[in-house]
Design a protein that fits this description.
The complex is a heterodimer of chains A (about 270) and B (about 450). With about 270 residues, chain A is an alpha+beta fold. Chain A contains 9 helices and 8 strands. An 8-stranded mixed sheet of chain A has the order 3-2-4-5-1-6-8-7, sandwiched between helices. The model of chain A has no long low-confidence stretch (mean pLDDT about 95). Chain B is globular and about 60 Å long. Chain B is built from 12 helices and 18 strands. In chain B, about 65% of the residues are buried. In chain B, the strands form 4 sheets. In chain B, strands 3, 4, 7, 8, 9, 11, 12, 13, 14, 17 and 18 form an 11-stranded mixed sheet that branches. Chain B is α/β, with parallel strands linked by helices and about 450 residues long. Classes of the chains: A alpha+beta (about 270), B alpha/beta (about 450). At the A-B interface, helix 2, helix 3, helix 4, helix 5 and helix 6 of A face strand 1, helix 5, helix 6, strand 8 and helix 7 of B. Strand 3 of chain A pairs antiparallel with strand 8 of chain B, so a sheet runs across the interface.
Amino acid sequence: METLTAHIESIGFWTNGLPSWDAARAFVATGALPEGAPGKPSPQLLPPNERRRAPESVAVALEVALSACQAAGRDPASLPSVFTSTHGDLSITDYVCTTLAAEPTAMSPTKFHNSVHNAAAGYWTIGAGCFEAATAISAYDGSFGEGLIEALAQLAAGAEAVLLVGYDTGATGALRSVHDCTGLLGGALLLSREGQGPRISVAYADGDGGTLPGGDGPLGRHAGGNAIASMLPLFDALASGAGHVVLRAGPPGRVLAVDITHPKGSHD
Amino acid sequence: MQRACRHVRQADVQDIAPIRLLSPGEATAGHRRIGHGPYNPGSFPDMSHAVPSASQTPTPMAPLAIRAYTSTTALGHGLTAQAEALRIRRSGLRRNDFGEGATAEARLDTWIGRVEGVEDVVLPSDLLPWDCRNNRLAWLALQQDDFVAKVGDLVARHGAERVAAIIGTSTSSIGASEEAYTRLDAGAFPADLRTPLLHTPHSIGDFVRRMTGIRGPCVTVATACSSSAKVFAQAARLIHAGVVDAALVGGIDTLCGSVLFGFNSLGLVSTQRCLPFDARRDGLSLGEAGGYAILERVADGEPGLRLCGYGESSDAHHMSTPHPEGLGARLAMQDAIARAGITPADVGYLNLHGTATPANDTVEALAVAGLFDASLHASSTKGWTGHTLGAAGIVESVFALIALEHGLLPGILGDGEPQPDPACGPQIQFANADRSIRYAMNNSFGFGGNNASLVFGKA
């Protein structure tokens, strides 16, 4: 199986209680949660009125995406992007279905255009003034893994750097009876062919990804109830300096085997 | 869901947010990409001094073989029905007869492209837990043109792990979620609709995997109405990177309350049959469809159809209104042509996104006139199928492939007495034409300013 590679130039992260990658790294190292963490992200890419009105999914995706760009010193307008999410925004799905069952013609046009799976990608490219390609995919519990493969394939096809963003919301309303999803979680990786930071090598392999979608690391245990928690084994490894991790992929029974070479001294 | 849907009458709609966030600055279509100067980490990006960046035109890609293709639309099941309806200019649109319960009581006065026979599909017993309208259409579309056997052969030749399934959709099986909300049991989904996968976008990609036994990368692409054009680009990258040897790509989208009443809320649904590129157009006709194509590396000296190039871009403008100068559309077309290693003059047919909303068709006509010379035959086929949203990419790629294979270049199907929009250049053709061409293109544009263009060829 062909192995795909990249450098992780920077990382963005937000979940309830851990509102930044620095906070997440400190949590992995010490188990300490920061005091006064905000209840929701406040993505600076959006003007203040949009920031308040943005759906949770859009807010968390734009928060981690901009954090990753800032940490790498890269212009958001210069980057192709891959947005991956299991469900998109479950509260908007709940709104759309509730409205259709009661009074279909009362549908809010704003809620409707925010219901598309690429809403976060759309707001990102608009906010960043980015004309580059953006995609939005889903692969159930393999959503992050398949997003990583698509980002690495874009690098292999010639892109110098690609922004990968994974995010999911908690379930609301009647959707809670089918989706056991809680909390808000977003993670972003700025991936490049020839950049700084840890180097990853990724290949498909047989495997089931374990019983815990988020793995048993500190971040996996903290935010494992979210539908995109399948990204957390990688984020735990990036924080702790682990050299190998397995991520769920799209087809059941297949996983991504990820080898990580950390820069010298990064986890001394 | 598509660029055409982006005509938003803001003054008429109270709760439309001012989505336009930032000015794209002095963006011009003369450069491959628009940069914004040095980025200042920690500060809000300054969009007021946009400067064109250095050209980043993509280098030509190795063409991929398109070994088979099929589609099922309101025109009928499979390729023969598509080609025949194009040739005799028979529309598949009918008066809206879709929906039950609240959606039927509020049924919209519009025309739809409904696929015959979806309700009658009985899935094999091992697929029944995933029964829903969208998956029935996916199954029905796979039964056409010997596709079950062709995919089976693909898996046998390469191994299930070496074949990808990349499937586009906009709403997947949200129709099943809508139904559950009409039959809630103490606030919970009814027992017969509790399969979690039915209520998530990957419902369709996972169902295609189950139908075919594919074990390679399995992904649902959901970028609204560009979805099943982008699947070709993603599959090409996976094959070129060596992750797989072949891919089943496709798109499936079915009519549902979400899209009918959603587009209605945006004021984008016509009460008449849609009239693409006509001065009298006032909105779209929604449709449903499913289709697939098989991509593999080209064998030495092998003749046949090709995926020659793809181009993807963003408008950076508005969630539901196209860039006023069609900049994103033009970037996608330019990239696709550059990746194919050809010039615009080499393209014989272009299937336009052409949804018949006032905004889309004007902008797309301007973008086409700015890029192609008068010899191009360009048309929208939405008058035949309606706008099939996340399936539009595959449906209209199939039309482009029919044009290549049979020299059948569709025009625009309206009410028989076209009054072309003043923005239409000589490229936009209302009548069918018959001639052999070397290259055909397809444009698919989506909500969020998400654009994809594909170049197909034959060798």
